[in-house]
Specification:
Four Helix Bundle (Hemerythrin (Met), subunit A); 5 helices
């Protein structure tokens, strides 16, 4: 892995952690829609960091999900449960950003935040093994 790749991975993981903190602040200030957005993007940054370890990328969110599932979930490097979680937070973010009449429950969003912390931690562990 080149120094540039290592720097990019560190940057993306830093963004993941910062964005997760943004989600936490949004939940504390009763902004569950913004929190759902930030939860997804925190996971997205972590996944793109992981993909970078293999020189993989996609210009579309659906492509990132597909690459993640194909290269890390299907081979068993990341649990199927965490793979499903990532797909679900993408759907939640899309719905909360674009759909009409969406109701988000603050407690459910809080649980998603805790799960996102676990998700990002699993990715960091996998990256560190690489």
């Amino acid at each position: 892995m080149t120094k540039g790749q290592e720097d990019l991975i560190r940057y993306k993981l830093s963004r993941a952690k910062e964005t997760l903190e943004e989600a936490r602040v949004m939940l504390q200030t009763s902004h569950p829609y913004g929190a759902a957005n930030r939860i997804y993007y925190a996971c997205f940054y972590a996944v793109t960091a992981l993909l970078s370890t293999r020189n993989l990328s996609s210009s579309k969110h659906s492509g990132v999900i597909a690459l993640f599932n194909r290269n890390f979930v299907k081979p068993g490097l990341i649990s199927v449960d965490l793979g499903k979680f990532y797909s679900r937070v993408f759907e939640d973010r899309t719905e909360s950003d674009y759909a009409d009449w969406v109701e988000l429950d603050k407690n459910e969003t809080q649980q998603e935040l805790a799960r996102a912390e676990e998700f990002i931690s699993a990715i960091i562990t996998l990256i560190n093994k690489h």
